[in-house]
Amino acid sequence: MQSKSRPKLVAREMFYCTKCGHLMHQSARACPECGAPSSVQGWSDISDRSRLTALLLCIFLGIFGVHRFYVGKMGTGVLWLVTGGLFGIGVVYDLAIIASGEFEDADGFRVAAWESD
Ligand SMILES: [Zn+2]
């Protein structure tokens, strides 16, 4: 359940390309030097939000979109809030995605770690 071995992100916004070592920003989807996709960076696409927290928020407050506010998705959070989680469908969908660890935060990082620290 827990992932204590997850590396700490020292400078979360910057990371090195695994192919050429070029330092690039987290928003870069591909290395500007060699063109390697940033997804090859195992840990760097993992959000610092907690999957457990997101899951609990989705279960209990999902129809208010609280789990989406939690990961910084304000736009869809409001949408969930006014539509009751897309009439419940969005909540069930999000629940499945969060549980599988594929839910993404507002920056495109996967909410995969069970603990946020
Ligand atoms: Zn590179």
Low-confidence parts: 1-10
Q: How many helices does DSSP assign? A: 4
Strands, count = 2
Coarse structural class: mainly alpha
SSE pattern, N- to C-terminal: EEHHHH
In whole angstroms, the N-to-C terminal distance is 14 Å
Determine the strand fraction and express it as a percent band: 5-15%
Task: Give the fraction of residues assigned to helices.
Answer: 25-40%
Q: Can you tell me the overall shape?
A: elongated
Profile the largest sheet.
2 strands, antiparallel
Number of domains: 2
Rg (C-alpha, Å): 16 Å
pLDDT averaged over residues: 84
Identify every distinct bound molecule in the structure, by name, code or SMILES: zinc ion
How are the strands of the largest sheet arranged?
Answer: 1-2
